[in-house]
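Propose amino acids for all 499 sites.
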């Protein structure tokens, strides 16, 4: 018999039925694990080599999903144990994950919250996460943060697009390279486009898989922040750069339906996109546990007992709809003397507070400023309903998840992202439509306890980080196993089913 034509006969120990398999596998080691495409029952099988002198692995078509062969020292047979064997994929173990966040982590808003909750959920499952980020930001207990070199002339948190990011990203690249060598991660998880570029370059150098956590278009963000002009040369330049960065990672995980659609419209291969929507830590955002804190905040802000409160928590900016919110409040409050607005967040709280003063509503539109993430549940518990007037159409809207977890009827702009999050449970208005926003506020105040409970139940069923982290780990494992299959399975290259 030639070396490239091996026949193996399987014999069932219980029924005596024989099955022969012929193939062209490579040599085996003393213990090799074989994925196969047909699965037998749970009975042990015995296989006899047709050629006593030839030691060879099974070809495709063997009978068990995962098998191990053990060469017997006295004869030419091998024993196969179907239920006690190991698989080609290594058993679950603690992964080492190097995250890259080109931002002033932690700054209590938006993408920072997603990064924190991902790290927290992964660490709860026993995985090690090391985060490389800018030199400034708030350190959090229990999070392994490695910061780039200090830049003494820049201490404030950078929100959105900034000219400072050019040298901040170079410093972050250097720190990430240092941590790549020291930490030796299994996977690189990059946030935002600058992080994806850093991770993509270093991932290729280190031969590590790279996940790009995509939270919206880089170019659209620059337009939202007024960093570039629409239809200008710089817009075309950054769109070209963005398309290249979108394709540098092994897998892209968008945070919402709008982000996925934007990627698909840009021509990215859909097979490289794996949806990991934003989610909520339900233990943190618990309306019952936060109720006492909510009452205390109402009292501290001077809101009278029995008043109805509309709450907003997030960034303050034009693309977030902050001016629209103030204009709507100016129309709504004269007709509803028992209603107050809490507009919490930063930056520019003083600017928007001055605008509310000019509109004559400063006594009932309250700007408490920046709220620590740890205090967010209590702040939201101070509200009766919540509002999310964000105008951006490519980013997710993470604040809505927290609103829903706190059982707050939610008023939001009618966008694909918000519809996907709320699932028909919200009160939507067209972007820029003040009359529609006012009608949505009335409808939200009319919601009863059952409608409120449905909001939290939807989060529990669809957007709980304790479940969503499994999807993220599946992305990691698929990339790691794909990269390491030749190492972990010595016979794998011969079989397409092993790739």
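Proposal:
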């Amino acid at each position: 018999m030639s070396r490239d034509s091996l026949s193996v006969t399987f014999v069932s120990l219980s029924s005596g039925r024989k099955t022969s398999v012929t193939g062209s596998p490579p040599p085996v080691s003393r213990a090799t694990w074989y994925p196969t495409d047909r699965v037998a029952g749970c009975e042990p099988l015995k296989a006899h080599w047709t050629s006593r002198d030839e030691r060879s692995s099974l070809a495709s078509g063997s009978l068990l999903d995962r098998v191990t062969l053990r060469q017997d020292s006295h004869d030419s047979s091998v024993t196969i144990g179907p239920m006690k064997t190991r698989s080609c994929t290594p058993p679950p173990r603690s992964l080492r994950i190097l995250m890259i966040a080109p931002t002033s982590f932690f700054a209590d808003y938006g993408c920072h919250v997603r990064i924190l909750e991902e790290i927290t959920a992964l660490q709860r499952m026993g995985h090690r996460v090391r985060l490389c980020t800018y030199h400034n930001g708030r350190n959090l207990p229990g999070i392994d943060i490695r910061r780039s070199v200090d830049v003494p002339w820049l201490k404030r948190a950078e929100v959105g697009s900034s000219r400072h990011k050019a040298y901040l990203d170079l410093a972050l690249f250097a720190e990430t390279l240092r941590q790549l060598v020291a930490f030796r991660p299994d996977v690189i998880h990059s946030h935002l486009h600058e992080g994806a570029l850093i991770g993509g370059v270093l991932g290729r150098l280190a031969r590590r898989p790279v996940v790009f956590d995509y939270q919206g278009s880089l170019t659209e963000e620059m337009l939202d922040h007024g960093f570039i002009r629409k239809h200008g040369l710089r817009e075309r330049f950054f769109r070209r750069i963005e398309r290249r960065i979108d394709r540098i990672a092994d897998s892209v995980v968008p945070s919402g339906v709008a982000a996925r659609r934007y990627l698909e419209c840009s021509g990215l291969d859909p097979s490289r996109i794996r949806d990991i929507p934003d989610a909520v830590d339900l233990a943190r955002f618990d309306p019952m546990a936060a109720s006492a804190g909510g009452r205390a905040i109402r009292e501290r802000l001077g809101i009278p007992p029995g008043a109805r409160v509309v709450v907003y928590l997030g960034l303050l900016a034009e693309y977030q709809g902050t001016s629209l919110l103030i204009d709507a409040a100016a129309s709504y409050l004269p007709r509803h003397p028992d209603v107050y607005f809490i507009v919490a967040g930063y930056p520019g709280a003083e600017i928007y507070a001055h605008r509310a003063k000019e509109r004559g509503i400063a006594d009932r539109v309250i700007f408490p400023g920046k709220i620590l993430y740890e205090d967010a549940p209590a702040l939201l518990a101070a509200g009766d309903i919540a509002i999310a007037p964000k105008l951006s159409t490519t980013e997710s809207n993470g604040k809505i998840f927290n609103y829903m977890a706190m059982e707050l009827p939610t008023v939001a702009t009618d966008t694909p992202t918000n519809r996907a999050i709320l699932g028909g449970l919200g009160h939507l208005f067209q972007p820029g439509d003040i009359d529609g926003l006012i009608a949505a506020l009335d409808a939200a105040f009319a919601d009863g306890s059952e409608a409120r409970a449905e909001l939290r139940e939807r989060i529990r069923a669809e957007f709980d980080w304790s479940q969503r982290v499994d999807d993220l780990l599946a992305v990691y494992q698929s990339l790691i196993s794909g990269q390491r299959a030749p190492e972990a399975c010595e016979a794998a290259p011969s079989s397409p089913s092993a790739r």
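The radius of gyration is 28 Å. The CA atoms of residues 130 and 144 lie 5 Å apart.
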